[in-house]
Amino acid sequence: MALVIGHRTARALAAENSLEGIRAAKRCLADYVHVDVRLSRDGKLVLMHDDSVDRTTDGKGMVQDLNCIELKAIRAGNEPVPTLAEALSLAEELELGVVVEMKEEGLEALVADVVPKKKSIITSSYHASLREIKEISDLKTGIIITSLPIKPVELALWADADAIFPEKVNPRLFKEAHQKGLEVYPGVVNTVAQAAWLLRLGADGLVTDDPCLIREALDQPVKATGQSNCEYYPCHHFEGQDCTHCFCPLYPCRDEELGRFVRTKRGKRFWSCIDCKLVHRPIVAKYLAEHPESTTEELKALAD
What we know:
The protein is of the alpha/beta class. It has twelve helices and 13 strands. The chain has helices at 19-27, 68-72, 84-93, 108-114, 127-136, 152-158, 171-179, 192-201, 211-218, 244-247, 282-290, 296-303; strands at residues 3-6, 32-39, 45-47, 75-76, 79-80, 97-102, 120-124, 140-145, 163-166, 183-184, 205-208, 260-263, 269-272. Strands 1, 2, 3, 6, 7, 8, 9, 10 and 11 form a nine-stranded mixed sheet that branches. A two-stranded antiparallel sheet has the order 4-5. Helix 5 links the parallel strand 7 (120-124) and strand 8 (140-145). The protein is elongated, with a radius of gyration of 22 Å. It starts with a strand and ends with a helix.
C-alpha cells in the first residue's frame, strides 16, 4: 500500500510546519508528515520552510538571526513556531512517521542526533548532505529533485539514498528506480486524478498538502488504464493486456523497428511502441526479467 505523506505537515488544512498541521495529518490518516527544518541563531532545529519567518508567521526576520526564545514568541497559525524535537515527540505520540527535509547544508550531525531511525526519512535538495547523513548514521534518506535530470537514479545512488522525492516524473523513472531498489515519492500531489495516475505508474507514496483528499484516492482500487482515461493514448491495443507504455522496462527504447513518435489527443509528442510485440514473447520476457539492462538489439537477436 502506498504511503500518504502530509506536505509541510498538512498545509492545506492547517498552518504549514506546525504542530496543528501534524494533528490534522493524523486526523486524515496520513502515514507520515513532512517537515522543513532550519537552524536558529542559537543552534536549535526549528520548523520553517523559508529562510525568513515573514510569510508563514506573524513575525519578521531571518531564521538564522532569531534565537529559539524569539521564535517561540511568534506564531505559526495558532501556535508558536515548533522545534524539530517537539514535532518528533508529537509524531511519535500520534504514531506518525516523519520526513525531515534539511533546508540548509551543515545540519547533518544535528539531525542525525535527534531523528529516530524508525519511521523516518531524511530528505534534502543538497545531495552531498544526504551522503554525509549515510556516513554518520543508519537513517533512511531520499534525494529531492525539482526537475527531471537525465539520470536521476544515478544521482540517488551517488548519494547512497534509499528513495527519490521528485516534483516531476515519467514512467521510466519508476521502472529504473525500482530496479535499483529505490522508492519513489512524487509530490506535491493535490488532485485525485493525479494521485490515481501516479499510483498506476508505481508510486510508493504521495506527498500532498491535503492528506484527507489523497487518502481517499489511495483507498480506492487502482483503475486499469485504457483509451478513455490514459493521457498517453494512443498506445498499445493488445487484447486483455494492460497499458504497456507504463510497464515495458525498455520504455522509451526509441528503436524505430519497434515504435515511433506520436501525438496525444492533447497534442503532446511522445514515444509510443505501437507496433512492438517483442517484450511479450515468453522467451524474451523471461530473459528481460533476468537481465533488466538488456538492449533491444540483444532481445531482437534472442527472438530471432
